[in-house]
Amino acid sequence: MLPLSLLRNIAMLEKFSALAVLFVTVIVLFTVAKAATYYCSVRCFLPSCCDTPISIWVINTHFIESVGIMAFAFVCHHNTYLIYGSLLRRSYTRFSAVSHMSVSGSAVFCTVLGLAGFLSFMNATKGDLLNNYCVDDWVATVARFLYACVIMLTFPIEIFVCREVLEIVLSRLPYRVISWVRQGRVKRALSRFLFSPRHSSLPRHVILTLVLVLFSLGVGLTTDDLSIVLGFNGCLMATPMAFILPTASYLRLTRGGRSHWYSRDRLIAWAVMVFGVIVMVIGTALSIEQAVQSFSHRGTSRLAYCPDTSSAHQSLSTCCSLIDSTVNLTLHVPLCDCSSFCHNSSILTSPDLYC
């Protein structure tokens, strides 16, 4: 990620971003295609995947975290000025078209990926959907590799934004912050690093990029649960940008004007801002709790619906439990013949079989 992050012009990421979009398209198509493969095996080997009422799927403790995650998926406010500045022929109309096309495309990808993945695994859906697929599924392995490529190709965009903010902060620092330094050579070096005009110091550009990339890498190495990262980042960072700061800015700009505090637009803004505060506080707390639980229960376990390569066939008790195991499940669709998953079909007709 470092070479792309060291670039100075965000427009140079154009082709890499297009490649990332292509990879995302492949991952979405993979999820849709694999839904037919995993639909029956999940329901036969893991009947508990579908025994939860539909209302519980929507109204539960993870709902607020989900709002934060979706806010993180769509928040792009912090990239606005850099993206607008990279347009070939800048205009409000062109930028509006780019924004609508990007957000609409993201909504389609999120909807298709979410529906295909959730309908495949239901209650067994993991925070990282790609972890639901069997380890020996080589197509899923390719999809995981492509997803890693997507992260590497899109991460530099966030580095551009963060580095730009740091550049602005450093450019506004008062000179007295280094007045305590007595060594003349050190003071001159600090002065060149801190007070050089924006985007004019190559050493500052490289050092800021290295610090940001290494810090992100250190945070990423602390967990292997993607849902924790998305939930925490979404609730604590994306929610204020999506719900709180825009409405707070609107309320501040319209204060003292012709609109009363009880006007329709201001009441809607207040409601959205309060909703954002609730999501941020509760969602962040739940994400921290989930992170603590994840660290105390680390480890991997074999997925029940993935074939066990250590045995030649499924055991008698397993085959027994597979027969008609999908009956009376939530959203049950009678498409699965669970007995077909027993590798040794002769035991199904054994007189000693008691189900």
From TrEMBL:
InterPro entries: AA_transpt_TM
GO cellular component term, pick one: membrane
Amino acid transporter transmembrane domain location: 2-288
Domain of life per record: Eukaryota
Cellular compartment(s): Membrane
Signal peptide: none
Alphabetized GO MF terms: L-amino acid transmembrane transporter activity
Record's bilayer topology term: Multi-pass membrane protein
Lyase found in the keyword field: no
Membrane-crossing residue ranges in chain numbering: 54-76, 97-122, 142-162, 202-221, 227-246, 267-288
Keywords: Amino-acid transport, Membrane, Transmembrane, Transmembrane helix, Transport
Family per similarity comment: Belongs to the amino acid/polyamine transporter 2 family.
Function: Putative sodium-dependent amino acid/proton antiporter.
Protein name, as recorded: Putative sodium-coupled neutral amino acid transporter 11
Organism whose genome encodes this protein: Geodia barretti
